[in-house]
Amino acid sequence: MRLRIQVWRQSPIDNGHWETHDLNDLSPGMSILEVLDRLNELLVAQGDEAIAFDSDCREGICGACGITVDGQAHGATANEPSCHQRLWSYQDGQTVRLEPLRAGPFPVLRDLMVDRQALDVMIMAGGFVSVNAGAAPESNDLPVGHDTVEDALDFAACIGCGACVAACPNGSANLFLGAKLRHLSELPLPSLERDRRAKEMVATADRVFGPCSNYGECAIACPAGIPLAAVSQVNRERLRAAFRSLRKVRK
Ligand code: SF4
Ligand code: FES
Question: Whose CA is closest to atom 3 on ligand 2?
C-alpha cells in the first residue's frame, strides 16, 4: 500500500511547516503510529531528525497518543485512539495529513506532541477524592447498587487523551469534565465533596477552555465512548451546586 504523508514539523522556536514523504511498503493493517515508526526509520537512516509524537501503551488504555489525521482528532474511525486507527480506512495512493491535536490550551511542544497539562489543571481543581476513608471498610457495610456502579464505571472510562477538546470547534473540555463529575458524584465517598468539586472544576473549565455549544464532535472522537450525556452533566452539577449554596444561605 502507498501513501503520501504530509506531516506537521515544528520546533519549540518556530511556527511550524508541512513536510511531505511518500511511503510505498505499507500494509492496510498498520496503525497510524506504525506509519510514523516506519517514516522515522527512513528519516533516521538518511540522517534526518525523527518526527516527535506521543505514545505509550498502544492498546487504547493510556491516552498518550492522539494526533489529528485529515482534520479528525485521532483519525477517520470514530471512537478509536490513534494507536488503533488502521490504514484500511484510507485508499491506496491517498494523501494523509498528520498534525498535532489543535486546541488553544494545548500548545505544540514539537512536531505532533502537544502539552496537555490543562487537563491536569482540571483534575487538580477537584477531580479527586480527599475524604479520609480510614481503614478499608467491610465491603458489605457500604452497599452500592449494580446500576450505579456500572454507570460510574462507564464514565470513569475516560483515558484523558484530550481528543474531545481538539475535536470541539470551541475547544471545550465539557466531555472530559462531565465524565469526571458523573463518575465521582455517583459513589458514596466521592459524593461527599460533590458541591465543592462541581463549583471548582466548572469554574476552571470556564477559565481554561471554551464554552460548550453542543456540537457533539467530542463524543464522535472519544476513544473511550464517553456519551454526550457527560456534557449535560456539567450544567446539572453546576446548577445543583448553586441551588444548594442558596439554600444554605437562606437557612
Ligand atoms: S472524554 Fe474521551 S476524548 Fe475526552 S479526554 Fe476522555 S477519553 Fe479522551
Ligand atoms: S498509546 Fe496508549 S492509548 Fe494510544
Answer: 60
Q: Mark residue 74 as left, alpha or beta (left: phi above 0; alpha: psi -120 to 50; beta: remaining).
A: left
Tell me the C-alpha distance between 65 and 77, whole Å: 15
Written as one letter, the residue type at 45 is A
Q: Pocket residues for ligand 1 (CB within 6 Å)?
A: 158-164, 175-176, 179, 221-224, 226
All residues at 6 or more sequence positions from 53 whose CB lies less than 8 Å from its CB, including other chains? 33, 36, 65, 67, 111, 112, 113
- In whole angstroms, what is the distance from residue 124 CA to residue 183 CA? 16
Task: Kindly give the interhelix angle for 229-250 and 194-208, rounded to the nearest 10 degrees.
Answer: 120
pTM across the whole model:
0.94
The single-letter DSSP state of residue 86 is B
CB of 65 shorter than 6 A to ligand 2? yes
**Contact (CB, 8 A) for 53 and 31:** no
As a 3-state breakdown, the chain gives helix, strand, coil percent values, each rounded to 5, of 40, 15, 45
Check residue 160 and give left, alpha or beta (phi > 0: left; psi -120 to 50: alpha). left
Is the CB of residue 62 below 6 angstroms from any atom belonging to ligand 2? Answer: yes
Distance CA 37, CA 56 (A): 13
Q: At what angle do helices 174-186 and 229-250 cross, to 10 degrees?
A: 60
Q: Which residues of 20-55 are buried (b: 16+ CB within 10 A; e: fewer)?
A: ebebeebeeebbbbbbbebbbeebeeeeeeebbbbb
What would the pLDDT profile of 190-217 be if each residue is shown by its tens digit? 999 999 999 999 999 999 998 999 999 9
